[in-house]
UniProtKB/TrEMBL annotation, chain A:
Bilayer-crossing regions: 6-21, 42-65, 166-187, 199-221, 257-278, 290-311, 331-353, 386-407, 453-478
Sorted UniProt keywords: Cell inner membrane, Cell membrane, Membrane, Phosphate transport, Transmembrane, Transmembrane helix, Transport
Primary gene name: pstC
Domain ABC transmembrane type-1: 253-474
Primary residence: membrane
Family stated for the protein in its record: Belongs to the binding-protein-dependent transport system permease family. CysTW subfamily.
Name of the protein: Phosphate transport system permease protein
Subcellular location: Cell inner membrane; Cell membrane
Record membrane topology: Multi-pass membrane protein
Organism, scientific name: Pseudooceanicola marinus
Recorded GO MF terms: phosphate transmembrane transporter activity
Lineage: superkingdom: Bacteria
Biological processes per GO annotation: phosphate ion transport
Protein function: Part of the binding-protein-dependent transport system for phosphate; probably responsible for the translocation of the substrate across the membrane.
TrEMBL record, chain B:
Keywords: Cell membrane, Membrane, Transmembrane, Transmembrane helix, Transport
Parts of the chain that traverse the membrane: 42-63, 223-244, 264-284, 290-308, 340-361, 413-434
Name assigned to this protein: Phosphate transport system permease protein PstA
GO molecular function terms listed in the Swiss-Prot or TrEMBL record: phosphate transmembrane transporter activity
Cell compartment(s), UniProt: Cell inner membrane; Cell membrane
Gene name, Swiss-Prot/TrEMBL: pstA
GO cellular component, one term: plasma membrane
NCBIfam families named among the record's database cross-references: 3a0107s02c
Keyword Membrane: yes
Superkingdom of the organism of origin: Bacteria
GO biological process entries: phosphate ion transmembrane transport
Family statement drawn from the similarity comment of this UniProt entry: Belongs to the binding-protein-dependent transport system permease family. CysTW subfamily.
Taxonomic source organism: Pseudooceanicola marinus
Membrane topology of the entry: Multi-pass membrane protein
Ranges where the ABC transmembrane type-1 domain occurs: 219-431
Length: 486, 442
C-alpha cells in the first residue's frame, strides 16, 4: 500500500480517536466539563497524538531504512559468487535496481502477478522485452544472477511494505485505543498533551544541532576517504591543481583570498562611508530613501550578480583594460578575471557592510557625540576621533563577517572568475576558487568513489573550517573589545 | 592631557597670529578644518551615490538585456497540405525534413524568386512542429492552416539588434542577402514580433532549437521546492523558536543549540549543497535533481533565518500578555499558544516570506544535487510525481543558460532573471504590506 493511503488511514483513525476520547471524557464527567480535570479537547488531542506520533515515527523510519536493508542483503547475493570492486558492484546494483523497478511496475499495472515474477527464470523467459514494455530500458541481456537479485529485491520490498502497512496501522489503532481507554474525568490529559508538545518543541530545536552534525559528518567521512586515496600533504601544500591528478589546494585558496580582498577593497570604504553618512549626516528623508535602496542590493540573488559579472562587468573591463581598449594597455585577455569577480562581489557586499556598520554606529551613545561637539570639534572630527574608536570592534567584526561571506560566495566566482588554477599576482588574469572547484568536481556524472569527486568534500571541509573560524573570531572580537556604556 | 595643554600654549612664532585672530576672519586652521569637514561629507555622499549608481546600472542592464526575451520574431505562413503530400512526407527517411521542404516551398511561392536555402536559414527548422501538428490534428489535412513559425535565432537576434549586418558579413549561417530577404518579409507582413508566451510556459530546449527554450517548467520546479521549504521550515522553525524563547532553561544544551543556529546562519550555502549530496542522495538514496531534495536542502538553509526572525517577534510581545494569561489560570503552554503566538504571527509570517525569498534565489546548493543542465524538460505528469521527477529551479536554469555558448541563451538568462526578480519583488512587497498592516507597537 502506498504511503499516501497509510497516511490517510492513520489520519482517519486519529480524527476518530479525537472525537471518541472527547465524547468519552464528557460522558465520564456527566456532561459537565467542570467535573473534568482538563478541557475536553485535551482528552481528544491526547488520543489523537497517542495514535499519530508512534505510527508516523515508525512509518518515516521504515520508509527511510527499508531500501538500505534490502540493498545490503541483495548486495550479498551479487557478491556471493565473485569478488567485485566498488565500481563494479555499484554498476551491478544499478542494473538490479532497474530490473526490480520494471518488475514492480509489471506487478502494479497488473501485467504479471507476484508469483509469476518470482517464477521467472532468465534462461527461460527473455525479460528484456517485458522491461522495455514497462518503460525500463536495460543495457544488456539480463543475467540469471541479476534477475535473481532483482527477484529477491522485489520480494523483500513486497514483504517489507506489507509489514510496514500492518505495523503502522496497528500502532495507530492501538495507541488511540490505549489513550481512549485511559480517558476518564480524573485523567490529567492537559499535562500529558503538554509533555508531548514540549518534547516536540525540543525535537524541533535540536534539528539545528543535527544539521551541524550532518554537515560535519558528511564532510569528515568523505574527506577521510579522500585522504586515503590522495596524500594529505600533497593536498594542503600542493601548488598545482588540474582537477584530476594534481589536487593541491594552494592555488584555489590564493584565488579565493585574492578575490575576497578585492571585494573588501570595494565594499568596505563604500559601505562604511555610506553607513557614516546615513547615520550621522543624512536627513530623515534621504535616509528613508537611500537605506532601503542600498538594501535592495542585498536582496538580489547571487546568480544575478554572477550573470552581471560575466556579461556586463567583465566585457566592460575588457574594453577598458584589454588589448585595443580605452587605455591602450593589454592587461586583460578574457572577460572572466579576478578583478571582475572581485568588483561584483564588492558591490554585493556593500549593503552587508553598510547595514551592519550602521547598526553599530547608531549604538554609540549620543552623549559622546554631544560631548565632543560641545568641545568644539567638527562633526567629522567627532566621527573620526570619538564615534569610530567606540564603534571599531563592531566594525571589525562586520568586516570579518563580510570576508567570510566573500570566501563562501559561489555563483559570482563560478560565472565571473574563470577556471584556471594559478598562483599569480595579476588581478586581470582568470583564477579559480575553492567554491568554483567544488561545483565543477561534483556536477555532472561524478563517480563518488574517485579522488576527483572526493576532493570536493575536502575542499568543502576547508571552506567550512575557514568561514567558521572567521565567524567565531568576529564574535570574539566584538565581545572582547566592546565598550559597555550603560 | 599633555597634547591638549601643549596646543593651548602659544607657540613662539605663532603668537602674533593668535593675537590678531578675530571671529570675522577665518583663520587658516579653521579653514583647513572646515575643508576637511566638507571633504569627509563628500566622501559619504560619494559612497551613497556609488551604491545607488551600481543599483541603477544593475537594474538597467537586467531590463535592457532581459526584456527582448519576452518577445519573439515569427513568420506567418498559410499552408494547405493534402493527404497525398502528408503520405509522401511520411514515407521519406527524414520525415521532418520533408515537412520543412513543404513549408519552404510554400514560402517560396509567396516570396517569388528566392533560393530555398535562404528561406531555410530564416525560418530555421519548422518540420517537427508541422509534423506534430498534423499527427495531432488529422482533420486539418486539406484545410488552410495559418502557422506561426519562430524564426531562426540569428534572425530573431537581427530584429532585436543583437546581431548586426556587419557581423554577418562572412557568416554562412545567415548572409547579408538573407537579412535583405528578412527585411522584405517584414515589410510584407510575413515576419513580425509578438509576445513570447513560450518563454513563460516552455521547457528547457537543446542547442538545435534555442528559440523554444522557456522557463515555465523550472518555475514549477521552484514552486515545488518552495512548498517543501514552507511546509517544513515554518512549523519546525516556529516550534524551535518557541522552545528557545519561552521554555528553554539556561544550560549547556540550549547554549549548544544557540551556538549552532548562529553558526548555521553564516555557513556558506554551498556547504549545505555538499550536505544534501552526501546525506540525502548518497546516504538516503533519494533521486538526484528532485525538487524534494532541493526543498530539504533549502529548508536546512532557511531554518536559521526563520528561527532568528521568529524569536525577535516573540520577544517583541510584552511580558504583560503572558502574565495576564497566567493570571487567569492558563498553563504556560496555553499562554504561549493561545496568546503570544497569535500576536507574534504577523512578524513570523514576514520573516518566513523573507526567508522563502532568499531560498528562492539560492543557486549553489542546487548545482550540487543535480538540478542543473538539461533537466527541466517537461512538466510533471501528476501533482504528486512533481516532487521526485527531475526538474530544475529558476536560478539553476538561469545558470544553465548562462553557461551555454549560443548568444540567444544569454538573452534567455536575463529574461529568466526578470521572472525571478518579479517573484522576489512580489514576496517582499507582501512582507512589507503584512508588516505595515498588522505589526503592532506595544
Amino acid at each position: 500500500m502506498p504511503n499516501l493511503w497509510i497516511l490517510i488511514i492513520i489520519g482517519v483513525v486519529a480524527v476518530m480517536g479525537f472525537v471518541g476520547a472527547r465524547q468519552r471524557a464528557l460522558s465520564s464527567g456527566q456532561g459537565d466539563i467542570r467535573n473534568l480535570h482538563s478541557l475536553p479537547s485535551f482528552y481528544g488531542t491526547n488520543a489523537m497524538l497517542a495514535g499519530l506520533i508512534p505510527s508516523l515515527v515508525v512509518l518515516a523510519l521504515w520508509t527511510a531504512f527499508q531500501p538500505l536493508v534490502i540493498q545490503s542483503s541483495v548486495t550479498h547475493i551479487i557478491e556471493a559468487d565473485q569478488e567485485l570492486s566498488d565500481g563494479q558492484l555499484s554498476l551491478a546494483m544499478t542494473d538490479v535496481r532497474r530490473i526490480a523497478t520494471g518488475l514492480e511496475l509489471a506487478i502494479e499495472t497488473g501485467r504479471l502477478d507476484l508469483n509469476q515474477v518470482m517464477d521467472m527464470r532468465a534462461d527461460v523467459t527473455d525479460v528484456r522485452p517485458l522491461l522495455g514494455e514497462m518503460g525500463v530500458a536495460v543495457g544488456s541481456d539480463v543475467t540469471p544472477r541479476d534477475l535473481d537479485a532483482a527477484q529477491r529485491f522485489v520480494a523483500m520490498a513486497q514483504t517489507g511494505n506489507l509489514l510496514k502497512t500492518v505495523l503502522v496501522i496497528a500502532l495507530s489503532v492501538l495507541g488511540t485505543a490505549f489513550a481512549f481507554v485511559r480517558t476518564s474525568a480524573v485523567f490529567r490529559a492537559r499535562n500529558a498533551v503538554e509533555r508531548v508538545t514540549m518534547a516536540l518543541l525540543i525535537a524541533a530545536a535540536s534539528i539545528a544541532i543535527l544539521t551541524t552534525v550532518g554537515i560535519v559528518l558528511s564532510m569528515i567521512v568523505n574527506t577521510v576517504e579522500f585522504f586515503r586515496l590522495y596524500p594529505a600533504t600533497d593536498f594542503f601544500f600542493g601548488t598545482r591543481w588540474n582537477g584530476t591528478s594534481q589536487l593541491g589546494v594552494l592555488p584555489l585558496l590564493w584565488g579565493t583570498l585574492y578575490i575576497s580582498v578585492i571585494a573588501l577593497i570595494v565594499a568596505v570604504p563604500i559601505g562604511l562611508f555610506a553607513a557614516i553618512y546615513l547615520s550621522e549626516y543624512a536627513s530623515p528623508a534621504v535616509r528613508s530613501f537611500a537605506k532601503p535602496a542600498l538594501e535592495v542590493l542585498a536582496g538580489i540573488p547571487t546568480i544575478v550578480y554572477g550573470l552581471f559579472a560575466l556579461l556586463t562587468v567583465g566585457p566592460f573591463l575588457l574594453r577598458v583594460f584589454g588589448s585595443g581598449g580605452t587605455f591602450g594597455v593589454d592587461w586583460m585577455s578574457g572577460a572572466t578575471a579576478v578583478i571582475t569577480a572581485g568588483v561584483v562581489m564588492g558591490i554585493m557586499l556593500i549593503p552587508f557592510v553598510s547595514s551592519l556598520s550602521d547598526d553599530i554606529i547608531n549604538a554609540v551613545p549620543q552623549a559622546m557625540r554631544d560631548g565632543s561637539l560641545g568641545l568644539g570639534a567638527t562633526p567629522s572630527e567627532t566621527i573620526k576621533q570619538v564615534v569610530m574608536p567606540a564603534a571599531l570592534p563592531g566594525i571589525v567584526g562586520a568586516i570579518l563577517l563580510a570576508a567570510s561571506r566573500a570566501i563562501g560566495e559561489t555563483m559570482i566566482v563560478v560565472l565571473g572568475a574563470g577556471a584556471a588554477a594559478r598562483l599569480s599576482m595579476n588581478p586581470f588574469e582568470a583564477m579559480t576558487t575553492v567554491t568554483t572547484r567544488i561545483v565543477s568536481q561534483l556536477t555532472g556524472d561524478a563517480d563518488f568513489t574517485s579522488a576527483q569527486a572526493l576532493v570536493a568534500f575536502a575542499l568543502g571541509m576547508t571552506l567550512f573550517v575557514i568561514t567558521l573560524a572567521l565567524n567565531v573570531f568576529a564574535l570574539y572580537i566584538v565581545r572582547k573589545y566592546r565598550e559597555q556604556y550603560d | 592631557m599633555t597634547d591638549a595643554t601643549a596646543s593651548h600654549t602659544p607657540q613662539p612664532g605663532q603668537g602674533g597670529e593668535t593675537a590678531k585672530s578675530s571671529l570675522f576672519t577665518v583663520s587658516p586652521r579653521t579653514r583647513r578644518r572646515n575643508a576637511s569637514e566638507r571633504r569627509f561629507k563628500a566622501y559619504g555622499v560619494t559612497a551613497i551615490l556609488l551604491g545607488l549608481l551600481f543599483l541603477c546600472f544593475l537594474v538597467y542592464s537586467i531590463l535592457s538585456k532581459g526584456l527582448p526575451a519576452f518577445t519573439r520574431t515569427v513568420a506567418e505562413v498559410e499552408l494547405t497540405l493534402t493527404q497525398a503530400q502528408i503520405d509522401e512526407a511520411e514515407s521519406t527517411l527524414l520525415k521532418t525534413g520533408a515537412y520543412r521542404d513543404l513549408m519552404i516551398a510554400e514560402l517560396g511561392k509567396v516570396l517569388g524568386d528566392v533560393e530555398p536555402d535562404a528561406i531555410q536559414r530564416i525560418v530555421g527548422n519548422p518540420g517537427a512542429m508541422l509534423r506534430n501538428f498534423y499527427t495531432a490534428n488529422p482533420d486539418a489535412i486539406g484545410d488552410t492552416v495559418a502557422f506561426e513559425l519562430p524564426t531562426a535565432s540569428r534572425v530573431d537576434g537581427y530584429f532585436k539588434g543583437r546581431i548586426t549586418r556587419e557581423g554577418q558579413a562572412n557568416s554562412t549561417f545567415l548572409t547579408p542577402a538573407d537579412l535583405d530577404l528578412a527585411d522584405r518579409m517584414q515589410e510584407e507582413g510575413i515576419i513580425k514580433r509578438e509576445f513570447n508566451w513560450q518563454f513563460l510556459t516552455g521547457a528547457e530546449a537543446s542547442d538545435d532549437n534555442p528559440v523554444a527554450a522557456g522557463i515555465g517548467v523550472s518555475v514549477v520546479g521552484s514552486l515545488y521546492m518552495m512548498f517543501v521549504v514552507l511546509a517544513l521550515s515554518l512549523p519546525i522553525g516556529v516550534a524551535a523558536s518557541i522552545y528557545l524563547e519561552e521554555f528553554a532553561p539556561k544550560n549547556r544544551f540550549t547554549d549548544l543549540i544557540e551556538v549552532n543556529i548562529s553558526n548555521l546562519a553564516a555557513v556558506p550555502s554551498i556547504v549545505f549543497g555538499i550536505l544534501g549530496l552526501a546525506f540525502f542522495i548518497q546516504f538516503a538514496g533519494l533521486p538526484r535533481s528532485a525538487p524534494l531534495v532541493g526543498g530539504l536542502v533549502l529548508t536546512l538553509m532557511t531554518l536559521p533565518t526563520i528561527i532568528i526572525s521568529t524569536r525577535a517577534s516573540l520577544r517583541a510581545v510584552p511580558p504583560s500578555i503572558r502574565d495576564a494569561a497566567l493570571g487567569v489560570g492558563a498553563s504556560k503552554m496555553q499562554s504561549v499558544f493561545h496568546h503570544v503566538l497569535p500576536l507574534a504571527l504577523p512578524g513570523i509570517l514576514t520573516g518566513t516570506i523573507i526567508g522563502l525569498a532568499q531560498a528562492l534565489g539560492e543557486t549553489a546548493p542546487l548545482l550540487l544535487i543535480g538540478m542543473v543542465g538539461f533537466v527541466a524538460l517537461r512538466y510533471p505528469d501528476t501533482i504528486a510525481s512533481g516532487f521526485l521527477d527531475s526538474n530544475s529551479a529558476m536560478p539553476a536554469q538561469i545558470y544553465t543558460w548562462a553557461a551555454r555558448a549560443d548568444q540567444i541563451f544569454y538573452e534567455k538568462a536575463w529574461g529568466g532573471i526578470i521572472v525571478l526578480l518579479v517573484f522576489l519583488l512580489t514576496m517582499n512587497i507582501i512582507a512589507v504590506i503584512l508588516r505595515r498592516r498588522f505589526e503592532r507597537r506595544w
